[in-house]
Amino acid sequence: MTGDHASLPHAPTRPSPPSAGAPAIEANDLVRIYHTHVGVIRRRPLDVEAVRGVTFHVRPGELFGLLGPNGAGKTTTIKTLITLLLPTSGSARVMGFDVARETTEVRRRIGYVFGGDRGLYDRVSGLENLRYFAEL
Questions:
Q1: Is 12 inside any structural domain?
Q2: What domain range is 127 assigned to?
Q3: How crowded is residue 18: how many other Cβ atoms within 10 Å of its Cβ?
Q4: CA-to-CA distance for 57 and 94, rounded, in angstroms?
Q5: Cα 84 from Cα 92, distance rounded (Å)
Q6: Nearest-angstrom CA–CA distance, 82 and 77
Q7: How far apart are CA 66 and CA 61, in angstroms?
Q8: CATH code of residue 44
Q9: Is 77 exposed, middle or buried (0-12, 13-18, 19+ CB in 10 A)?
Q10: 3-class DSSP state for residue 67?
């Protein structure tokens, strides 16, 4: 082998981590539409807009919660941020990585606790629940 490095294959470049002032989580005009069908005899398509134009930024170390009534899109927004769902439009980044294009990088940097049995946690306040799960 000669000293000619121009012929060597280049390793793929990895996205750089977010800068010090960058948000840990950012959602910009996030939209998620579910395509489904209604009707038993005459089925017809139906689009359900679960998330409409959600925008927010969470700084590193900031305590943040999504609040809203049933069906407001909280779970759908979280599932989009953790790469379980793709956004229909808009964008979202976690630790500087795009949730739609860099899913592996996002998943390496997050943890998620699915809801379910809350028997252990229903004796404390909502704020105490948020603080507890933020420490995990």
A1: no
A2: 20-112+120-135
A3: 16
A4: 10
A5: 13
A6: 9
A7: 16
A8: 3.40.50.300
A9: buried
A10: coil
- Give the span between the Cα atoms of 45 and 76, in whole angstroms: 20
Instruction: State how many domains the chain has.
Output: 1
pLDDT tens for the chain, 136 residues long, are 445 545 555 544 555 555 667 899 999 999 999 999 999 899 999 999 999 999 999 999 998 989 999 999 999 999 999 999 999 999 999 999 999 999 999 999 998 877 665 555 677 887 887 787 777 7
Is residue 93 in a domain? yes
Amino acid letter for position 96 = G
Decide if 112 contacts 82 (C-beta within 8 A).
yes
> Is residue 83 a part of any domain in this protein?
yes
Instruction: Kindly state whether residue 14 falls inside one of the protein's structural domains.
Output: no
Which ranges constitute the DSSP H helices of 86-125? Answer: 103-108
